[in-house]
Amino acid sequence: MNTGTTIKTMLQLATPATRMIQILEWGFSLDDPPGADGVIELLQADVAATVTAHVASGVPNLDPNGTTTLLTLGSATGTGYTSTNEGTVTATRPFDTVSLSSVSGESGLSYVRTFMPDDRPIVAVSKFLRVRATTPTTGSDMRCFVTFQEVG
Predict the structure, then answer these.
(1) Is the separation of the CB atoms in 110 and 27 below 8 Å?
(2) What does the buried/exposed string (b/e) look like for 117-146 if buried means 16 or more CB atoms within 10 Å of the residue's CB?
(3) φ/ψ (deg, to 5) at 7
(4) How far is residue 120's CA from residue 24's CA, in Å, rounded to a whole number?
(5) In the prediction, which pLDDT does 60 show?
(6) Which residue(s) pair with 50 in the sheet?
(7) Terminus of the chain with fewer CB atoms < 10 Å: N or C?
(8) Taking phi first (over 0 means left), then psi (-120 to 50 degrees means alpha), and beta for anything else, what does residue 18 get?
(9) Are 109 and 3 in contact (CB under 8 A)?
(10) Mind spelling out the 3-state secondary structure of 45-61?
(11) Residue 2 has what DSSP assignment?
(12) Number of C-alpha atoms within 13 angstroms, CB side, residue 42?
């Protein structure tokens, strides 16, 4: 997925009205450094981005005996990837931020953070977890992931 040249949500998880999610791990990798210094964020937003909708098979449960996810699926304003519209966000809760240097070799092109049990962010019900990229002048191919558990 290409980051584009403005703020762009690369992955969005939409929590239902009945469940929160706890973030266990997240990460990303880029093919090339951005053309100007950039930033990758993991944050909770109050408004959905317009995304390509995920289907249940795209959100696998890592527990072989677990149930299908209750995340909001099948909608352009639910769980999905590669936003086309960021929406008008009025409130965010940042969980992690990574600065990217445009100078090759100054910052890594891959990042993984595993949250310790007492430090794991919780995304509230009816909110949106986003992996958001800002690469101001040149887009870069990016892959990202979030490992989470649903909590009731």
Answers:
(1) yes
(2) eeebbebeeebbbbbbbbbbebbbebebeb
(3) -60, 130
(4) 6
(5) 86
(6) 85
(7) C
(8) alpha
(9) no
(10) ECCCCEEEECCHHHCCC
(11) B
(12) 24
Token pair recorded at residue 132: 């958001």
Residue 122 scores a pLDDT above 90: yes
* Residue 104 token pair: 């090759």
Cα(146)–Cα(87) distance, integer angstroms: 21
User: Amino acid identity of 99?
Assistant: S
Neighbours of 91 (CB within 10 A): 9
Q: Which two tokens mark 80?
A: 């999905």
Rounded Cα–Cα distance for residues 21 and 121 (Å): 8
Band of residue 143 on the pLDDT scale cut at 50, 70, 90: very high
* Residue 147 CB contacts under 8 Å (≥ 6 apart), including other chains: 23, 24, 25, 26, 62
pLDDT in tens, 63-98: 888 888 999 999 999 999 999 999 898 899 999 999
* CA separation for the pair 149, 69 (Å, rounded): 9
